[in-house]
Amino acid sequence: QVQLVESGGGLVQAGGSLRLSCAVSGRTFSWPVVGWFRQAPGKEREFVGTIQWMGGTTYYADSVVGRFTISRDNAMNTVYLQMNSLKPEDTAVYYCATGGVGERSTTYDYWGQGTPVTVSS
Questions:
Q1: 33: closest CA among 47, 20, 19, 18?
Q2: Which of 31, 26, 46, 32 is nearest to 91 (CA)?
Q3: Are 26 and 118 in contact (CB under 8 A)?
Q4: Which is more confident, 116 or 28?
Q5: pLDDT at residue 110, as a whole number
Q6: Does the pLDDT of residue 92 top 80, yes or no?
Q7: How far apart are CA 72 and CA 57, in angstroms?
Q8: What is the DSSP string of 8-20?
């Protein structure tokens, strides 16, 4: 089994920054990709981006390109989501996930509990 624990969410003003962390434990070697997703109140879960453990290749949703950066620390089994130039529409609960690939949340088998991010205008 794989466990994921997000942290780092909070309240920030528009234009500010936050860094989220996703600590992954368990059979991490089995799943090469970690994804970030978010879900705003009353909306569907939305893809944010992915990173590969090996090589660090990243891929982002158009809505966050140039503002969000995903990185990883293989030694710590931790993935980060650096969010800059935050907008009120970035307000959501942010989740990390693994056991899947790509943009579709339904392909991912393992999820963290989520960390809330609120961006005030």
A1: 47
A2: 46
A3: no
A4: 116
A5: 95
A6: yes
A7: 10
A8: --EEEETT--EEE
Cα end-to-end span (Å), the chain: 40
Q: Count CB-CB contacts under 10 A for residue 11.
A: 12
Q: Give yes or no for residue 1 having a pLDDT over 90.
A: no
Q: Which residues have CB under 8 Å from 118's CB, separation 6+?
A: 10, 11, 12, 91
Cα–Cα nearest to 72, from 17, 34, 104: 34
Give the per-residue pLDDT at 31. 86
In this prediction, residues 83-99 reach a mean pLDDT of 97
Rounded CA separation 29/110 (Å) = 14
Classified as helix, coil or strand, 118 is strand
Cα–Cα distance, 72 to 119 (Å, whole number): 24
pLDDT at 78: 95
Closest CA to 41 of 96, 118, 109: 118
Radius of gyration of the chain (CA): 13
